Amino acid sequence: MLTLAVLTVSDTRTYDTDESGRLIGDLCRAAGHVVASWRIVPDEPAAVTRELQAAVAHCEVAAVLVNGGTGISARDRTYEAITGLMQRRLDGFGELFRSLSYQEVGPAAMLSRAVAGLVAGKPVFSMPGSPAAVRLAMEKLILPELGHVVAEAGKPT
Q: Domain 3-153: what homologous superfamily?
Protein backbone atom coordinates (compact mmCIF):
# COMPACT_ATOMS: atom_id res chain seq x y z
CA MET A 1 0.00 0.00 0.00
CA LEU A 2 1.35 3.39 -1.04
CA THR A 3 0.17 6.88 -0.18
CA LEU A 4 -0.24 8.96 -3.32
CA ALA A 5 -1.09 12.49 -4.38
CA VAL A 6 -3.15 13.33 -7.47
CA LEU A 7 -2.73 16.63 -9.28
CA THR A 8 -5.00 17.69 -12.15
CA VAL A 9 -3.72 20.54 -14.29
CA SER A 10 -6.64 22.28 -15.98
CA ASP A 11 -7.99 25.75 -16.56
CA THR A 12 -11.57 24.48 -16.78
CA ARG A 13 -12.10 21.43 -14.56
CA THR A 14 -13.68 21.43 -11.15
CA TYR A 15 -13.89 18.61 -8.62
CA ASP A 16 -17.34 17.80 -10.03
CA THR A 17 -16.11 17.62 -13.64
CA ASP A 18 -12.61 16.19 -13.17
CA GLU A 19 -13.30 12.75 -14.56
CA SER A 20 -9.60 11.95 -15.01
CA GLY A 21 -8.54 12.94 -11.50
CA ARG A 22 -11.41 10.90 -10.09
CA LEU A 23 -10.42 7.94 -12.29
CA ILE A 24 -6.82 8.07 -11.06
CA GLY A 25 -8.04 8.03 -7.47
CA ASP A 26 -10.48 5.18 -8.10
CA LEU A 27 -7.84 3.05 -9.85
CA CYS A 28 -5.31 3.71 -7.08
CA ARG A 29 -7.76 2.78 -4.33
CA ALA A 30 -8.82 -0.35 -6.24
CA ALA A 31 -5.14 -1.35 -6.31
CA GLY A 32 -4.96 -0.97 -2.52
CA HIS A 33 -3.31 2.44 -2.34
CA VAL A 34 -4.33 5.55 -0.41
CA VAL A 35 -4.91 8.91 -2.08
CA ALA A 36 -3.75 11.53 0.44
CA SER A 37 -4.63 14.51 -1.72
CA TRP A 38 -6.34 15.48 -4.95
CA ARG A 39 -5.77 19.00 -6.18
CA ILE A 40 -6.79 20.90 -9.29
CA VAL A 41 -4.45 23.66 -10.41
CA PRO A 42 -4.56 25.94 -13.46
CA ASP A 43 -1.98 25.35 -16.19
CA GLU A 44 0.30 28.09 -14.92
CA PRO A 45 3.89 26.90 -14.42
CA ALA A 46 4.30 28.66 -11.06
CA ALA A 47 1.08 27.11 -9.73
CA VAL A 48 2.02 23.63 -10.99
CA THR A 49 5.48 23.96 -9.47
CA ARG A 50 4.07 25.11 -6.13
CA GLU A 51 1.53 22.26 -5.91
CA LEU A 52 4.03 19.62 -7.02
CA GLN A 53 6.62 20.79 -4.50
CA ALA A 54 3.99 20.74 -1.75
CA ALA A 55 2.93 17.20 -2.71
CA VAL A 56 6.45 15.74 -2.71
CA ALA A 57 7.25 17.55 0.55
CA HIS A 58 4.45 15.67 2.31
CA CYS A 59 6.37 12.93 4.13
CA GLU A 60 3.72 10.25 3.66
CA VAL A 61 3.36 10.75 -0.12
CA ALA A 62 5.32 8.08 -2.01
CA ALA A 63 4.50 9.31 -5.55
CA VAL A 64 2.56 12.00 -7.38
CA LEU A 65 0.24 11.32 -10.32
CA VAL A 66 -0.37 14.32 -12.56
CA ASN A 67 -2.84 14.59 -15.42
CA GLY A 68 -3.40 17.35 -17.96
CA GLY A 69 -1.39 19.99 -19.75
CA THR A 70 0.90 17.62 -21.65
CA GLY A 71 -0.02 18.65 -25.20
CA ILE A 72 1.53 21.31 -27.41
CA SER A 73 -1.04 24.11 -27.28
CA ALA A 74 0.04 27.47 -25.89
CA ARG A 75 -1.65 26.71 -22.52
CA ASP A 76 -0.04 23.26 -22.15
CA ARG A 77 2.90 24.04 -19.89
CA THR A 78 2.81 21.19 -17.42
CA TYR A 79 5.77 19.46 -19.07
CA GLU A 80 8.04 22.48 -18.60
CA ALA A 81 6.99 22.98 -14.99
CA ILE A 82 7.50 19.34 -14.04
CA THR A 83 10.71 18.62 -15.95
CA GLY A 84 12.22 21.76 -14.48
CA LEU A 85 11.98 20.10 -11.05
CA MET A 86 13.19 16.61 -12.01
CA GLN A 87 16.52 15.33 -10.80
CA ARG A 88 16.17 12.15 -12.88
CA ARG A 89 13.88 11.29 -15.75
CA LEU A 90 12.27 7.94 -16.47
CA ASP A 91 12.29 8.30 -20.25
CA GLY A 92 10.83 4.83 -20.72
CA PHE A 93 7.48 5.95 -19.32
CA GLY A 94 6.87 8.56 -22.01
CA GLU A 95 8.25 6.30 -24.73
CA LEU A 96 6.05 3.38 -23.72
CA PHE A 97 3.02 5.59 -23.21
CA ARG A 98 3.30 7.04 -26.72
CA SER A 99 3.86 3.58 -28.18
CA LEU A 100 0.76 2.17 -26.49
CA SER A 101 -1.21 5.30 -27.28
CA TYR A 102 -0.25 5.00 -30.96
CA GLN A 103 -2.05 1.65 -31.03
CA GLU A 104 -5.23 3.41 -29.88
CA VAL A 105 -5.14 6.86 -31.49
CA GLY A 106 -2.58 6.57 -34.28
CA PRO A 107 -0.03 9.26 -35.11
CA ALA A 108 -1.70 11.83 -32.81
CA ALA A 109 0.15 9.98 -30.01
CA MET A 110 3.26 11.96 -30.95
CA LEU A 111 1.60 15.11 -29.56
CA SER A 112 1.76 13.77 -26.00
CA ARG A 113 4.52 14.98 -23.74
CA ALA A 114 3.82 12.40 -21.03
CA VAL A 115 6.84 12.26 -18.75
CA ALA A 116 7.98 10.71 -15.49
CA GLY A 117 10.91 11.17 -13.18
CA LEU A 118 12.04 11.92 -9.67
CA VAL A 119 11.24 15.19 -7.93
CA ALA A 120 12.78 15.51 -4.47
CA GLY A 121 13.51 11.78 -4.70
CA LYS A 122 9.87 10.82 -5.29
CA PRO A 123 8.38 9.43 -8.51
CA VAL A 124 6.17 11.82 -10.45
CA PHE A 125 4.16 10.59 -13.43
CA SER A 126 2.63 13.18 -15.76
CA MET A 127 0.05 11.93 -18.23
CA PRO A 128 -2.48 13.54 -20.57
CA GLY A 129 -5.80 14.63 -19.14
CA SER A 130 -8.21 12.54 -21.18
CA PRO A 131 -9.85 9.66 -19.31
CA ALA A 132 -8.76 7.19 -22.02
CA ALA A 133 -5.14 8.31 -21.73
CA VAL A 134 -5.30 8.17 -17.93
CA ARG A 135 -6.73 4.65 -17.99
CA LEU A 136 -4.02 3.52 -20.44
CA ALA A 137 -1.18 5.04 -18.41
CA MET A 138 -2.49 3.85 -15.06
CA GLU A 139 -3.47 0.30 -16.02
CA LYS A 140 -0.69 -0.57 -18.45
CA LEU A 141 2.28 1.31 -17.02
CA ILE A 142 1.99 3.06 -13.67
CA LEU A 143 0.07 0.72 -11.38
CA PRO A 144 1.84 -2.50 -12.46
CA GLU A 145 5.25 -0.97 -11.70
CA LEU A 146 4.52 1.68 -9.06
CA GLY A 147 5.67 -0.29 -6.03
CA HIS A 148 8.93 -1.19 -7.75
CA VAL A 149 9.55 2.41 -8.90
CA VAL A 150 8.94 3.75 -5.38
CA ALA A 151 11.23 1.10 -3.87
CA GLU A 152 14.03 1.88 -6.33
CA ALA A 153 13.67 5.62 -5.79
CA GLY A 154 13.92 5.14 -2.03
CA LYS A 155 17.12 3.10 -2.02
CA PRO A 156 19.98 4.78 -0.20
CA THR A 157 23.01 5.90 -2.15
A: MoaB/Mog-like domain (3.40.980.10)
